[in-house]
Design brief:
Layout: E1 9-16, H1 22-29, E2 38-43, H2 51-54, E3 62-66, H3 76-92, E4 100-104, H4 111-120, H5 122-125, E5 128-138, H6 142-148, H7 150-157, E6 161-165, H8 172-185, E7 190-194, H9 213-220, E8 226-229, H10 240-246, E9 262-269, H11 275-289, E10 293-300, E11 309-314, E12 317-318, E13 322-323, E14 334-341, H12 345-354
Parallel strand pairs: 1-4, 1-5, 2-3, 2-4, 5-6, 6-7, 8-9
Antiparallel strand pairs: 9-14, 10-11, 10-14, 11-12, 11-13
Helix pairs in contact: 3-4, 6-7, 11-12
Bound molecules: guanosine-5'-triphosphate.
Length: about 350
């Protein structure tokens, strides 16, 4: 497979805490036609991986295992190598190129470094694009796991879709408590219930940035978030002390009860944004607060440009902006969705205004 083919292969990241049902789901998925010619990468923690043995093998898809450590922290290079070797092997055998890739993370993985690897590894980034992050949550133990484990909160926070598994083990009341808890962390992610891994593959693959304007709005789900808008030119502090105060940790009640203070909000800007302002703002925001910004998605109207842009970032790393059809931003309003760990919306909005040109006197 060469990068000149110019068609990026979609990658779905399947995450979820230990025992949440990832392997059970994967086993059902690989039997479906949407998974024909897929590559399944299973990351095992420890030397003796078992999960890959539990996923059905067939001629229709390929399963490879990475077991040298936790994919999120120690072996980023291995992801590139593993996928590369699998591609070379299938080509060597005269097989069809992979139609898609599914990566099952370990239950303890923070998905952000995996997404970074997909975006920044030269070989991967030229051949693959992130389709979506799917996070499984055990309906029976989900709330206590979220309260106890920061990795679980991060998995939920960055997901495009949440699958509530083992719903046969809980009653309606408990299920709705979990659903509310998850919505407080990630209000836009669609929630689906799954029993024993029974789910159509279409609910797992194809959740990424769509090409059509209508669906781009659905991808952003801006209305699901608390809304903040630019306070306006001249409102931002201009002294260094003022700038420092913006960067102070968020105060006041967090949107969730978790130690991580995961917050999400949508920042709207009514006027088209000058490209250099956008660049300066995001550069400074990411260098000051990048490790606290778990995910950013945006549809942006750039001044002097007809087509809006889709922006998509994980912590301080952004995908190259993708032009969208004009209909994706009919009202000309730019919308930025932020999912953060303890960053107050004002830090984002005031920093934006800091870069606005001063009003003429
Ligand atoms: N009752 C019930 N059990 C389930 C369901 N889905 C999965 N399980 C069971 O939950 C256990 C854990 O499922 P796995 O699919 O191995 O979970 P996993 O996320 O791959 O686990 P790790 O590899 O440890 O991260 C297994 O015993 C499954 O049979 C379900 O919907 N209902």
């Amino acid at each position: 497979m060469s990068p000149d083919d110019n068609v990026l292969i979609p990658v779905t990241v399947l995450t979820g805490f230990l025992g949440s049902g990832k392997t059970t789901l994967l086993n059902r998925l690989v039997r479906q036609s949407a998974m024909k010619d897929a590559l399944v990468v299973i990351n095992e923690f420890g030397d003796i991986g078992l999960d890959h043995r539990l996923v059905a093998e067939s001629d229709e898809h390929t399963v490879v295992e990475m077991s040298s450590g936790c994919l999120c922290c120690t072996i980023r290079g291995d992801l590139s190598r593993t996928v590369q070797q699998a591609c070379e092997a299938i080509e060597g055998e005269g097989g069809k190129p992979f139609s898609r890739v599914i990566i099952e993370t370990t239950g303890l993985a923070d998905p952000a470094p995996i997404l970074h690897t997909l975006m920044t590894d030269h070989w991967l980034a030229h051949r693959f694009s992130l389709d979506g992050v799917i996070c499984l949550v055990d309906s029976a133990s989900g709330i206590s796991t979220l309260n106890a484990h920061r990795e679980s909160q991060r998995q939920v926070a960055v997901a495009d879709r949440l699958l509530l598994t083992k719903t046969d083990l809980v009653d309606e009341e408990r299920l709705s408590r979990l659903a509310n808890h998850l919505a407080a962390i990630n209000p836009a992610a669609e929630q689906l219930q799954v029993r024993h891994g029974e789910l159509a593959a279409e609910h797992v693959v194809g959740s990424g940035l769509p090409a059509q304007g209508q669906r781009a709005e659905r991808w952003l789900q801006a209305a699901s978030y608390a809304q903040v808008s630019s306070p306006g030119v001249g409102m931002a502090p201009t002294t260094p002390g003022g700038l420092a105060s913006m960067m102070a940790p968020a105060s006041g009640p967090a949107l969730t009860r978790h130690g991580e203070q995961i917050r999400s909000f949508c920042f709207t800007v009514e006027q088209p944004i000058a490209p250099e302002l956008l660049e300066d703002w995001l550069d400074l925001l990411m260098s000051l607060l990048g490790d606290k910004i778990l995910r950013v998605k945006a549809i942006v109207k750039i001044a002097g440009r007809e087509q809006p842009l889709a922006l998509h970032g994980v912590q301080h790393i952004f995908h190259p902006p993708e032009p969208l059809p004009v209909e994706a931003c009919r009202d000309g309003v730019s919308r930025f969705v932020f999912i953060t760990n303890g960053v107050a919306p004002e830090a984002v909005t005031q920093l934006f205004d800091y870069f606005q040109p001063a009003p003429a006197t």
